[in-house]
Fold this sequence. Notes:
This protein is of the alpha/beta class. The protein folds into two domains: 21-37 and 105-272, Rossmann fold, CATH 3.40.50; 40-97, no CATH class. It is 46% helix and 10% strand. The chain contains 13 helices and seven strands. A seven-stranded parallel beta sheet has the order 3-4-2-1-5-6-7, with helices on both faces. Strand 6, helix 11 (255-261) and strand 7 form a beta-alpha-beta unit. Helix 2 (40-51) runs parallel beside helix 4 (70-81), helix 6 (106-114) crosses helix 7 (132-139) and helix 6 (106-114) crosses helix 12 (272-287). It starts with 11 loop residues before the first helix and ends with a helix. The model has no long low-confidence stretch (mean pLDDT 91).
Amino acid sequence: MRFVEQGADIPDELIRAVTDGSATFLCGAGVSFRVNLPSFKVLTERVYAQLGEVPDDEPAERNAIESKAYDRALRSLEKRTHRPGTPSRVRDAVANELAPPAVAFPDHLALLQLSRDGDGRPRLLTTNFDTLFERAARDAGMLNVPSYAGVSMPRAGGERDHGILHLHGRIADDTLDLEPTDLILTSADFGEAYLRSGWASRYIEDRMRLGTLVLVGYGAEDAAMRLLLETLDADRDRFRDLHDIYAIEIGTTASASIWKAKGIKPIEFTGYDAIYDTLSEWARYAMQPVGYRRARVQDILGTALVVGS
Length: 309
């Protein structure tokens, strides 16, 4: 189904999964680009600038940045700038750079409306540290939408499995009375969460067993998800209960092939406006499918009458 003329077709099976509450949207930094929050690359650059540091004289950091391994660069930067017994200057800088702008968040609201459980409660997963989803919920009058982060997230599929779920942690938001949590920011943090203790890997695998995952705001080569998703795709032959994963993103000449190699079904657009116009219209449909269909039929009939007159 094509919700807007300039958009891509959304597969019928994905529309059904969203409508019946069995899909969970997993959102990355790209969902906040239109309100001027940074990508991981730009965030890394701003952290260096805020600390008055440069990677040029540090081969490990320079090589990591050239390889787009920003988590490794930040790990090295944190190690050499941290003073024992004091807060991490790197993490303080990250929180400063992700302070919520004083704007509306319609893109975040549309994603909250799409990612709902069978009882109609928002259940949205994000690797973003910012609190823009919480602010979108508040501004829309969504009451009692809980916010969880990291290892404190409720068990996937459990009774408390709803709300805004920050897989990689969350910064503080004094306006919303939200405390900061630990962040999965550096290569050491990723190693702990996805490899050594593996709690984040197990959580994503549980989500794949419970329903469809829809990635929004990630690139085809996003480092944070690459290892995990490729590993889980390798398990599909053994575990037939793993559901589909879709990726909604801007297409390039190579991106579809890269997504498919990871076992992910791409839904590619020409630009961010096309993506979020589609998500907004899709959210209208998901909230009231019958009324939406009726209105679309009336619009089509009205256009036909005007053309035929």
